[in-house]
Design goal:
The protein is α/β, with parallel strands linked by helices. 44% of the residues lie in helices and 14% in strands. It contains 14 helices and 7 strands. The chain has a 7-stranded mixed β-sheet, sandwiched between helices. Helix 7 packs across helix 8, helix 8 crosses helix 9 and helix 12 packs parallel to helix 13. It is globular and about 60 Å long.
């Protein structure tokens, strides 16, 4: 399958990053290079683009999509290692850094990757299937009932988390749960029929939770945002697109902390903490897709863009 990607909030990202010819830009979640291609056009002919992804298929597709002759550096890795990767890229700083979080459309559309509850496939969900590490099947078949409940409730915000976990443990006692459709059936059995009649697919929240757990997405996000801010030049901007409340909460927390100045008690006559703001929050309210974009790309419906500027 061709690795295609419809970039979410593309016009808004390009506007907010304030790109200029000669800028140094970093796309920490390259995917199908939908954002990266337009970023590269905006900083041409003298700019530098660093594209990072842990998925070999994404890197191969990006190499075909991005224009030859520009200063483009493609690196395989997880943005959890952003400091190391940007040292490897040999850039002195960055003027713009983008994170487009979550799973990409091509990954969802490749059944063999095991991300989608609409296709029957091995229960994998690793962003980097060549990199080893536990799969979603390992989580489902090896975690305790309490651990499964925590993951599904915390990362999926699923009200039926404890019941789904109990049904998973009972089902795997009969035989291992190895495929997406096997898990979907267990989830459907666990959620009462009255709760399945409306709303999204009953497996959506559980699949989201397993993907986040397998790829440790929330754990690495805080550190990655802080690393990005360290690499920004004064006046440089970091933009982050999140697709669920857990990611968005981490982004808001880090931005607010880094934008805060003195934390001394108000009754102190002079500041003794020495704390000064590192960021200026550009988007006090998250930017969301227009109705037209959601109609053309339904997967954008939950997207929220937040932007901050280095001071």
């Amino acid at each position: 399958m061709e690795y295609r990607h419809s970039p979410v909030l593309l016009a808004e990202v390009l506007q907010q990053l304030k790109l200029q010819p000669g800028s140094i830009a970093v796309d920490c979640t390259l995917g199908g290079a939908g954002h990266a291609r337009r970023i590269a056009d905006s900083i041409a002919p003298t700019g530098t683009l660093v594209g990072i992804d842990q998925d070999d298929a994404a890197l191969i597709a990006a190499a075909d999509t991005l224009r030859l002759g520009q200063q483009i550096i493609l690196l395989k890795g997880n943005f959890a290692d952003l400091d190391r990767l940007l040292v490897e890229a040999s850039i002195p700083y960055a003027d713009a850094i983008l994170f487009d979080l979550g799973v990409s459309s091509p990954q969802l559309d490749m059944p063999e990757r095991g991300f989608s509850y609409h296709h029957d496939a091995p229960l994998d969900m690793r962003m980097d299937p060549e990199g080893g590490g536990p799969t979603a099947a390992d989580v489902v078949d090896q975690y305790s009932q309490a651990q499964l409940t925590r993951v599904i409730r915390e990362y999926g915000e699923e009200r039926w988390a404890s019941r789904i976990a109990a049904f998973i443990v009972a089902a795997r006692g009969r035989r291992p749960i190895a495929t997406t459709f096997e898990l979907v059936q267990v989830i459907k059995d666990a959620i009462p029929a009255s709760a399945r009649r409306g709303g999204p697919h009953p497996a959506r929240r559980t699949f989201q939770a397993l993907r986040i757990e397998v790829n440790q997405e929330i754990e690495v996000l805080d550190g990655a945002i802080r690393a990005a801010v360290r690499w920004l030049a004064p006046g440089g901007r970091v933009a982050v697109i999140a697709y669920h409340s857990l990611e968005d909460r981490v982004i808001k927390t880090v931005f607010n902390e880094l934008a805060r100045g003195c934390t001394c008690p108000p009754d102190l006559p002079v500041c003794v903490c020495g704390r000064v703001p590192v960021l200026r929050i550009v988007t006090r309210k998250a930017i969301v897709p227009t109705a037209d974009e959601i109609e053309n790309n339904p997967r954008s419906r939950s997207a929220k863009l937040r932007v901050a500027e280095k001071v």
